[in-house]
């Protein structure tokens, strides 16, 4: 049987998210549904694109539930094909060991993953995470603040997600330059 890639979208408070899924599991999540995002994912996966709404239904429902606060733990199959061995080890450690409402530092994740890579490299792995939100790179923070975030509109999205999860207090005077 030939493997395939299917795309689906879900509307959230952060915009329309694009999810890519193979028969193995979720392979990508983009904060914006664009033809370019679809083309990049299809090229990277090297798979033909098909229409498979039933395949995507569980992932899209889980994301809807996450954004309404009704889902605290994603239990979706993941297809790691768009990651290197080190990325896979770091990201799978993150997915399996850092629950909703908790954060850890880049350095702590490096140690926990057993890769021995420096915190800065962990930051690069988080920036290259092909499945943000579901593989919760927003839960990885700098030792002196939030750190960066390449998803959506950047660190504002990271702050919003951590506020949703109760990891950081909601503030009325959020300033991206000062942090929370």
Largest sheet descriptor: 4 strands, mixed
What overall geometry do the principal axes of the alpha carbons give? globular
| Strand order in the largest sheet | 3-2-1-4
Total strand count, please?
Answer: 6
User: Helical percent range?
Assistant: 25-40%
- Count of runs of 4 or more consecutive helical residues: 6
What structural category characterises the helix and strand content? alpha/beta
- Oligomerization state: single chain
Order of helices and strands: EEEHEHHEHHEH
Radius of gyration, CA atoms, in whole angstroms: 16 Å
Provide structural commentary.
With 180 residues, the chain is an alpha/beta fold. It is 37% helix and 15% strand. The protein has six helices and six strands, in the order βββαβααβααβα.
What labels would you give this structure?
180 residues; alpha/beta
Topology:
Layout: E1 5-12, E2 15-22, E3 26-30, H1 35-45, E4 49-50, H2 53-67, H3 85-97, E5 104-105, H4 106-113, H5 119-127, E6 140-141, H6 155-164
Parallel strand pairs: 1-4, 5-6
Antiparallel strand pairs: 1-2, 2-3
């Amino acid at each position: 049987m030939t493997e395939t890639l299917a795309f689906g979208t879900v509307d959230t408070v952060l915009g329309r998210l694009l999810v890519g899924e193979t028969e193995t599991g979720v392979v990508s999540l983009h904060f914006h549904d664009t033809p370019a995002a679809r083309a990049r994912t299809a090229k990277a996966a090297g798979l033909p694109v098909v229409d498979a709404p039933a395949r995507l239904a569980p992932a899209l429902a889980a994301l809807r539930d996450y954004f309404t606060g009704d889902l605290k733990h994603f239990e979706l199959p993941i297809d790691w094909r768009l990651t290197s061995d080190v990325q896979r080890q770091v990201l799978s450690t993150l997915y399996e060991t850092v629950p909703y409402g908790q954060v850890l530092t880049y350095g702590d994740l490096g140690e926990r993953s057993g890769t021995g890579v420096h915190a800065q490299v962990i930051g690069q792995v988080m920036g290259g995470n092909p499945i943000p939100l579901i593989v919760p790179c927003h839960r990885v923070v700098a030792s002196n603040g939030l750190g960066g975030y390449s998803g959506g509109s950047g660190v504002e999205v990271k702050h919003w997600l951590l506020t949703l999860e109760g990891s950081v207090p909601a503030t009325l005077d959020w300033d991206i330059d000062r942090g929370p």
